[in-house]
Structures are given as C-alpha cells and as structure tokens.
Amino acid sequence: MHACMQDGMTWLLSSPEESLAYILADSGFDVWVANNRGTRWSSRHVSLDSSSRRYWDWSWDDLVVNDMPSLVDYIYSHTEQKPHFLGHSMGTLVALAAFSEGRTVDKLKSAALLTPVAYLSHMTTPLGILLAKAFVGELITILGVAEFNPVTPAVASLFKELCRHPGTNCYDLLTDFTGKNYCLNSSAVDVFLQYEPQPTSTKTMVHLAQTFRDGVLSKYDYVWPGVNVEKYGQPDPPAYNMSNIPAGFPLFLSYGGRDELADPGDVGRLLGDLRGHDPGRLTVQYLEQFAHADFVIGTCAKDYVYNHVVSFFNRFN
Q1: pLDDT score of 306 more than 80
Q2: Is 259 a catalytic residue?
Q3: What is the distance between the alpha carbons of residues 212 and 146, in angstroms, rounded to a whole number?
Q4: Spatial distance between the Cα atoms of 171 and 89, rounded to a whole number of angstroms
Q5: In which band, very low, low, confident or very high, does the pLDDT at 112 lie, cut at 50, 70 and 90?
Q6: Where is the AB hydrolase-1 domain (predicted)?
C-alpha cells in the first residue's frame, strides 16, 4: 500500500534489481499491488463519476474501515492464504489505524511498515507545515474543490503561492516535502515525476493537516460538534489508540533520521505506544542517513532495507 498522492507504480519505478515488488517476486512471493481510490488505476466507481463531489467525499478513515479490509479479503479469496502487508507512509498510517481497531490482524501474517506514520506533530517539511497551518484543506473544501490534484490549475496555483514563502525550495519539491534523501539519483527522480503525484481527496489532505495541528491520531474532525455527534456519537472525533494493536502481531518498522514527514520524534512516540508489544514480534530498524523517498526509490534501499524485509517475511511465512 503506497503513500498519499502516489499509486502502486511507486513499487515498480526503479530497475527490477532495485524495486521492492520485483525483489519480493524474485524471492518467491506473490505480490499484490494496491492502488488507493481516486488514483490512476483505481478511478472507477459503481455509480459515481470522478468529476462529482460525492466521488471525492472520503478521507483515509474510509481506507481504514472499507478499502484495506476489502483488499485483504480479496487476496485471501483468490489464494486461500494469509498475506503479509507492506506499506509506505500513508499506507502505514492506514494499516496502523486498522490494526488498532482489530481490523485485518487476524487475516494477515505480518506487516512491514516503511516510514511509519501515526503522528505528524514533529513534521519539519516546509511545504507540509505551510499547508497544515494555513488550514488549506478546509479552505479548499469550502471553495468547492473536492479532488486534490497537484496538476489541476486550482491546486497548482495554491502551491505556486506557498512557494513564495521564505524557507521553501520549490525547485526541489521532492526534498522540500520529504527531507534530504540519501541515495536518490537524478534519473530515479525523473522517472518518479513522470508517474507521480497522483490525485487524492481534499478531505484526506484535511485529515492529515488535522493530525499535524492537533497532535493526536483521530478520526476525521468535522469541526462542528453536532456533525461529529451525528457521525461518532460524541462531539470530538474518536482517537486511534496504537497501544491497542495486538501485542503478538509481527511488525517490522523501518525509519530514517533525515525524514521530514515521518520524523524520528513521531516514530519514537509510536514506539512508546508499542512498548508492551512482544519483543520477539517487533523488529525496528533505524537508518540515520535515510529520508522519506529513500525507502521506495532509493538506489541503495535493497541493501539497507529490502533484504531485511524479505528476511522478516520469511521468518513469519
């Protein structure tokens, strides 16, 4: 499961010797590549058109409750085997939230989480902070943009305006969003930018901004207490409790010291929530020199990360 504003191509953009999907396949695994709703390969709907506002009326909560369980059930129905889960960035957020509510853990063998995101309060990426602090998501929703697509004029002009702020470097957007990556070469970045970014819902961007601003991981906040009561039965959105993740469920967490999205401080807070986890079922890898994109398109990710992922999956296969 890929990150926000990306799709399943993320796992296939490097050479077959360097892309995690190919490496897993060469190691004997069947690889199922997820594409979140609204992206290039997952844009259809049984009744709604992608040009309608209703089509985009969802946040990552809906991926937790509906999409991820459906994906796991679909794979099991075709293989009659429990799969392993692998996620990057928002893919890990969806998984952690699902696991904390007991969703899918009984249908998975294990989970490997690259740049795990449960909290965002230590995020240091300049553009990300500007977006969150400006309440951009709520503003765009009010203005009528239900789809957050960086290539559309409305969102592109927003980024152009934010790029005028001191401290941003929009000549190197990938670094400005993710941190100074360790082993990206220019050709890898060029290929990445041919396929990404992908659209997501503005509501998802609002939800991520709320996670940063509020300092807690909770369900989508509709702001008006009456609406929250209607949705959740209480005036504030319920929190996801990471300590509720079953202590015996095998987890592999890998994170980087230069990551400005999944900041080490926020990952440390997540690890604090997991302090009651079975030590034999929790593997943690910290790479001081890695940033956010190194984990998916870094030329050295195989040696530093992927070989360890394969070993972890084989251990719980």
Answers
A1: yes
A2: yes
A3: 21
A4: 23
A5: very high
A6: 18-122
The verdict on residue 311 lying in a domain is: yes
Write the CB contacts of 172 (distance below 8 Å, at least 6 apart in sequence).
Answer: none
* 89 has catalytic annotation: yes
207 is catalytic: no
What is the average pLDDT score of the chain? 89
The beta-strand segments (E) located in 195-304 are 200-201, 251-256, 282-287
In a domain, 211, yes or no: yes
Residue 2 included in any domain: no
CA neighbor of 201 nearest in space, from 313, 60, 65? 60
Buried b (16+ CB within 10 A) or exposed e, 22-53: bbbeeeebebbebbbbbbeeeeeeeeeeeeee
What's the CA gap between 183 and 18, in Å, rounded? 12
Closest CA to 91 of 212, 204, 238: 204
CATH number where 127 lies: 3.40.50.1820
Q: How many domains does the chain have?
A: 1
CA-based radius of gyration for the chain: 19
CA distance 276 to 43: 40
Domain of 127 in residue numbering reads as 8-315
Give 263 or 159, the one with higher predicted confidence: 263
Question: Which among 2, 88, 207, 292 is annotated as catalytic?
Answer: 292
Catalytic residue among 19, 89, 100, 201: 89
User: Which is the catalytic residue, given 61, 259, 266, 294?
Assistant: 259
Q: Tell me the pTM.
A: 0.92
